[in-house]
Design a protein that fits this description.
alpha/beta, single chain, 15 helices, 2 domains, Aspartate Aminotransferase, domain 1, globular, binds (2S)-2-hydroxybutanedioic acid
Length: 399
């Protein structure tokens, strides 16, 4: 059976990571996946996470299964983080959810859930979006289309075009947005724009799905939740997919959550029953360790404070790296956009959508062993004092 199978193409992000590992060039640079590096080029374990893990190791008394939707304490903490403690939907028990293996797991469960209750829904993705969004919803058997989001020439939101496109969608369709630090564009709607988008989606009867993988990398944990909190006040039903890979540094623990805001507690219970069926047929129930870490940190005032401060330091380091990147490009007389390079400092989160073309990206890899994603997305979170000059020299040398 396998003799006649043609090899599948590599993953557009992790495939490059594999190629990077095999590259023998001693001064190669990897700016592909969104992975935070400190100034010394390490991806640290948060101090609060280490403390929580010691405590878990000490206190854990069983490795028995969690329930299908995972740990209830964990889901409660994530709901509060996503919506704010005082959100009326929480007080009214209209919120439900499940603890999932990573944000990707949350998105796939969301896809399976939508397909099981509303198989004709079209899933609308921003153009551009995270490269894995399309494959996830297609794999769930849903139709996928895209709408304008970002103007690649002007490096701003394609706001009017987005609104026009969203006016066309059908009731029951799903609109995938990102809670903050849009991947790959680094460009989010303003508070006023979130409000307007929410009103439009509510009028259309659309279901917003917020993918939130970078909460805390924009302005702060609280401020970065503004968009999804505004939407969840205006639109009656909303899905939020959370990931703690980046903001807790728990990349390989695979810890995320799917949160559903519904219109009543009975609707929440019914939704949960469908979520459970989707999960049971997929991975049965989630792994516990990552969720225990997140719960332990968020429930303990001192650990929570330490986590939030460390996350703040990461955010500041990435902002500083943006400024250094602009300075280093300017020094070399390189302009990535006609208006100069300052668009890089306006972008938020881990990435910069540089405007480099597919050919330029290939040249960076082939001639200089500088790895970025084909769309021109650069992981600024991976830029350090040790690699920034090499990256900028390589960009300056582009043909
Ligand atoms: C990224 O976009 O680089 C990250 O979200 C890693 C991934 O899973 O693709």
């Amino acid at each position: 059976m396998f003799e006649s199978v043609e090899p599948a193409p590599p993953d557009p992000i992790f495939g490059l990571n594999e190629a990077f590992k095999e590259d023998p060039n001693p001064v190669k640079v990897n700016l592909t996946a969104g992975i935070y590096l400190d100034e010394e080029g390490r991806t640290p374990v948060f101090a609060a996470v280490k403390t929580a893990e010691r405590r878990i190791l000490e206190e854990e008394s069983t490795k028995s299964y969690l329930g299908i939707p995972g740990s209830t304490d964990y889901v409660t903490q994530v709901q509060r983080l996503a919506l704010g403690r005082d959100h009326p939907a929480l007080a009214e028990a209209r919120v439900t959810g499940a603890h999932t293996p990573g944000g990707t797991g949350a998105l796939r469960v969301a896809g399976d859930f939508i397909r099981s209750i509303h198989p004709d829904a079209t899933v609308w993705l921003t153009n551009p979006t995270w490269v894995n969004h399309g494959p996830i919803f297609l794999a769930a058997g849903l139709e996928v289309r895209s709408f304008p989001y970002f103007d690649r020439d002007k490096h701003v939101l394609s706001y009017e075009e987005m609104l026009t496109a969203l006016t066309e969608i059908s009731a029951g369709d799903v609109v995938v947005l990102q809670g903050c630090c849009h991947n790959p564009s680094g460009t989010d709607p303003s508070t006023e724009q979130w409000r307007e988008i929410g009103e439009l989606l509510a009028n259309r009867g659309a279901l917003p799905l917020l993918d939130t993988a970078y909460q805390g990398f924009g302005d702060s944990v609280e401020e970065d939740a503004q968009g999804q909190r505004i939407l969840s006040e205006i639109v009656p039903e909303i899905l939020i997919c959370n990931s703690f890979s980046k903001n807790f540094g728990l990349y390989n623990e695979r810890v995320g959550a799917l949160i559903l805001v519904t219109t009543s507690s009975s609707a929440a219970q019914a939704a949960l029953s469908h979520l459970k069926r989707c999960i049971r047929a997929n991975y049965s129930n989630p792994p516990a360790h990552g969720s225990k870490i997140v719960t332990t940190v968020l429930e303990d005032e001192a650990l929570r404070q330490s986590w939030s401060e460390e996350l703040g330091r990461m955010r500041h380091r990435i902002r500083a790296a943006r400024e250094q990147f602009v300075e280093a490009l300017d020094e070399r007389g390189v302009h990535l956009a006609p208006g100069g390079n300052t668009f890089i400092t306006r972008q938020r989160g881990m990435f910069s959508f540089s405007g480099l073309s597919v050919d330029q990206v290939l040249e960076l890899k082939e001639k200089h062993s500088v790895y970025i994603v084909a769309s021109g997305r650069i992981s600024i979170a991976g830029m350090t004092p040790g690699n920034i000059d090499r990256v900028c020299d390589a960009i300056a040398a582009l043909g």
